[in-house]
Amino acid sequence: MQQITIFVISDSSGETALTVAQTAVSQYPAVQASYQRFPFIQTDSILDGILNLAKKQRAMIFHTLVSPKLSQRVREFAAKNLLHQFDCIQPAMAVMHQATGLEPEGVPGLVHNLNDTYFDRIAAMEFAVTYDDGKDPAGLLKADIVILGVSRTSKTPLSLFLANRNLRVANLPLSPKTQLPEELWQVDPKRIFGLTNRPEILRKIRQERMISYGLPADSAYSNTDKITEELDYAQKLYKKIGCLVIDVSDKSIEETATLIMESVDYDLIPHPLAD
Length: 275
Fold this sequence. Notes:
2 domains, 10 helices, Rossmann fold, four-stranded parallel β-sheet
């Protein structure tokens, strides 16, 4: 079974691009696809963050972006980084233009009300990209939720999924050899969530990642003993912090996000959800 990752990027809900991708994949029984949906994308900064994630995961991209500028950005990025992409909307708009002679509005998400909740969601998405992967420890103090985990425990896609629920999320990668930022100890443990996985599953995920980079599957990164050491370190840290621990080995991003949203104390978060 060949494994592929598909990013669905849209300025709306992403249902159209997701349906197109799933329909195409259904014609290839030997292919098993994992889908990551990124809806309501309308700014360069958020799109760039998602495209960089796609590059890291060597993902195929299906997109519905009515902005010619953003669509072109996806196409150029994909060509430069040898990623496969499919534009699900611009060719259709071009046909409409040819048939009617009219120009499209080019306004993203016309079917959505641009209310405060919408703009809160955009801000949360930008926050997740800015403070992804421990880029700036200051984000830990500004975040509604902090996600911890060793490499390849789905911290980034989980952060973006939660951001789409208007939660500002910062995530921090863990390693026995990496010094923890002081800011971490200033965050309320009830707003911190630690991710873990089974060593054998994590090893397989990391091997696939190495192969996607054109490197040998077996390396220090995918070594079972090293992975076990990392997971043990993370588990001890979680116990010291006193945060909730979630085993993601048998859970989808949606299931993990639901557990977090059901567990978080919304009275403690700095940015209450909009009604």
